[in-house]
Design a protein that fits this description.
The structure is a single chain. By secondary structure, this protein is an alpha+beta fold. It has one domain. Helix content is 22%, strand content 22%. The chain is built from two helices and three strands; from the N terminus they run E-E-H-E-H. It is elongated.
């Protein structure tokens, strides 16, 4: 059974915060390299391809687009 812990996501553009769960097994797995993919409970958030090479979170399409523009 996977171990999930309570966490808080923070949008890297606007700073919005939201509660979520972290799947510790997936986060620690060598096969898995994206922390965003180990998060659950954020159905409208964007984890990848929002502008930075590192794993960043965006709470909306608008924030994801803004992150993409700031790194172009």
């Amino acid at each position: 059974m996977p171990v999930k812990i309570d966490a808080e996501a923070i949008c890297h553009h606007c700073g919005k915060r939201a509660p979520c769960k972290l799947d510790v097994d997936r986060l620690m797995s060598r096969r898995f390299s994206s922390p965003g993919g180990a998060m659950s409970g954020l159905p409208d958030w964007h984890y990848k391809n929002c502008g930075y090479e590192t794993d960043n979170l965006a709470c909306s399409e608008k924030c994801a687009a803004a992150l993409t523009k700031t790194t172009s």
